[in-house]
Amino acid sequence: MEGVVAKRRDHGYQPDKPWSKIRVRNSYEAVIGGVIGPANAPTALVLGRYNERGRLRVIGRTHRLPRAASAEVAAMLTPPAGPHPWPTVIPGGRVGLPGSEPVHHTPVAPRIVVEIEVDSAYEAGRFRHGVRFLRRVPRLPG
Questions:
Q1: Domain limits of the chain?
Q2: Could you read off the pLDDT tens digit of each residue along the chain, which spans 142 residues?
Q3: Do 65 and 133 meet the contact criterion of CB atoms below 8 Å apart?
Q4: DSSP, residue by residue, 17-65
Q5: How far does Cα 109 stand from its chain's mean position?
Q6: CA distance 53 to 65
């Protein structure tokens, strides 16, 4: 279910008045595989998930990061050790920007897992819309 369309109970149907759409939002975990902008001050994250073969696949990108989130993420990032699984230019449709220009990103070591807020628009293994960064997912040592 993508969401619910609603109107005020005390308002009758009025064809020229828009109803409100409330989207379903879910929490999801993803790996940071790249950043848009410099690694020391990213403006957005390019995110991935490992498939059943262990390959890191692009699933989308975040909306613009707030300044505090950008600083928090930048402090965690490291350059990739060896070849990165993604090219530095990704088609816009692969990161939730159908019909847009290709996205240039800075690859980072894919080791930081983050929690994101997503809507239900998910197809072909990726999110059709930008997602919202919530926080880093703490991992237990070992």
A1: 23-136
A2: 566 777 777 777 777 777 777 766 678 899 999 999 999 999 999 999 999 999 999 998 999 999 999 999 999 999 999 999 999 998 876 665 556 788 899 999 999 999 998 876 767 777 777 889 999 998 755 5
A3: yes
A4: SPPEEEE-EEEEEEEEEEEES-TTS-SEEEEEEE-TTS-EEEEEEBSPP
A5: 17
A6: 31
Q: Which helix (H) or strand (E) holds 71?
A: helix 67-74
Structure token pair of residue 136: 């880093």
Q: Which residues contact 134 (CB under 8 A, 6 or more apart)?
A: 27, 114, 115, 116, 117
Tokens of 75: 């402090």
Q: Which two tokens stand for residue 120?
A: 């239900």
Predicted model pTM = 0.78
Residue whose entry in the numeric block shows the structure tokens 């848009």: 36
Identify whether the C-beta of residue 32 lies closer than 8 Å to the C-beta of residue 45.
yes
Query: What integer pLDDT is reported at residue 64 of this predicted model?
Result: 94
The CATH class of 23-136 is mainly beta
